[in-house]
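Cross-posting from the modeling subforum.

Setting up a comparison between two proteins and wanted a second pair of eyes on the formatting. Protein 1 (sequence, then structure tokens):
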Amino acid sequence: MEDTAPAEVTQGLEREGAGRRPVVEIRNLSLTFSTRDGPVHALKDIDLEIEAGDFVSLIGPSGCGKTTLLRTIADLEQPTGGSILVNGVSPQEARLARAYGYIFQAAALYPWRTIERNVTLPLEIMGLPAAERAERARRYLDLVNLAGFERKYPWQLSGGMQQRASIARALSFDPALLLMDEPFGALDEIVRDHLNEQLLGLWNKTEKTVVFVTHSIPEAVFLSSRIVVMSPRPGRIIDVISCDFPRDRTLDIRETPAFLEIAHRVREGLRAGHSYDD
């Protein structure tokens, strides 16, 4: 039997646009993994609010807990201390209400399904009629500039195109929140720049709230409305930096003094947080 969310939970999620409550509220959150070699302290004392329409990037050294924090928002990991709310409800309730779309580091497309049928997979699970599934696939593939590729298979597309298809899949059920775990990290710089521009345009069009994990300082500064700088494990927030650039910015902004100043502050925060030797 399919999980469903209580009506009051869904209604609470739909009220997100009212702006009375942040989309994500994290208070004093900690997470410790139990392993055979002893406890691993992944996150400690995390306090963070993410407002509707924000594009928030999480950046920090490898192993600092960026992905763990993202997975905690998504109810894929359970905190061992503190609290977290997604649109005013628990992460589990938000997951059951399909309040977010999750984009992984790899595109995670099924090779035996066409691009259209990969995009419509969540809609099939939800039981939507075939005609509506096809219309949504068309709409969101067009939004990510993949119109005409509906009948192709993932192995017939480039890596960047596959990631755009995975974004279309995450958008297909129209979640208010997108959680993106370093989706462009394996791509070359030219493709990555192009997808950064496309993602920025997509954010501008849809006005989704985005939480984005990256290791790239230029990517974080270019995409974000705010950057959360994290320390090595156990991951703590050591700085939150606002990026007040126009929403329709282009890659040329990376040469401006304002961009370079923010990039310098991020770099200094990472150095202050210290060591890449763990």
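Protein 2 (same layout):
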Amino acid sequence: MGIFGKLFSSDKKAPGSAQTPSEAEAREALDKGLEKTKSSFFDKIRRFVAARDTIDEEVLDELEMALISSDVGIDTTLKIIDRVKARVARDKYLGSDELDRILREEVGALLTENRSGNQVDFSLERPDGAPYVMMVVGVNGVGKTTTIGKLAAQYTRRGYKVVLGAADTFRAAAIDQLAVWAERAGVPMVRQQMGSDPASVAFDAVSSAKAQEADVVIVDTAGRLHNKVNLMAELSKIKRVMQKVVPDAPHEVLLVLDGSTGQNAFEQARQFSAATDITALAVTKLDGTAKGGVVIGISDQLKVPVKYIGVGEGIDDLQPFDRQAFVESFFSR
């Protein structure tokens, strides 16, 4: 079983830690988190579909606009519409329930093709005994530090030893915020003064994690603006320095995106992907927006798997992305 399979299903628990949420509780949180997206989506297509026995070009046009307004993205929307048209022609489609089924199947197929959710992950059983190194990137305000804190808490209560690295040294508030989360999760944090070399902090964090025989080290990085080329170059420096301690680090580069920003999240993802090797995505703040379709579009356009979604403020509201549950929730009335 891979690292994230262990993380969210292992019986190993820290003493006195809270139990992980049940499947039903996780699904309830997902449904609630996607409520605004679902309401907006179905409000737009209900009047066109409900009274029709067949799906014509007018209904498909309305479906296209509903997907685009949910920030699925134009290219991905057109791909979905083309697939739906092919299915309608082949299956002699009749009835709105069948359209629901076709949409679920085709969007689910897209997410599967892009390896989003339910994929095999890395193993904690590292042959050299070195920690699993995760570097987290993203612009200010997307929920990056909060995501790190929630991950640390979730690892810890399942019995894993975690170290945090406060390599966002450009903002004092970032270091202080991460310190709060480190205390909540009961994990050590490696920090230096504001303005210190971020790569130096990353080096110290990975070195400390290795010395402590920690399972995981999560390194925060500056909430850099995606158009600051010199700051993007810092990411490469951080990676090179960490590799002096753990040669194959980082094992994951997690890009955190704010789902409520819609198309701007697309642009941030493209810019970060051009600047460094993004291996996974976390899409946050889906509970406060009608733009939940951005999860589908980003995954399809970048071919980078979505690994986590944020559907609320609680620790367990940062969920490992389950594509089947997401599709069922997104298209449920």
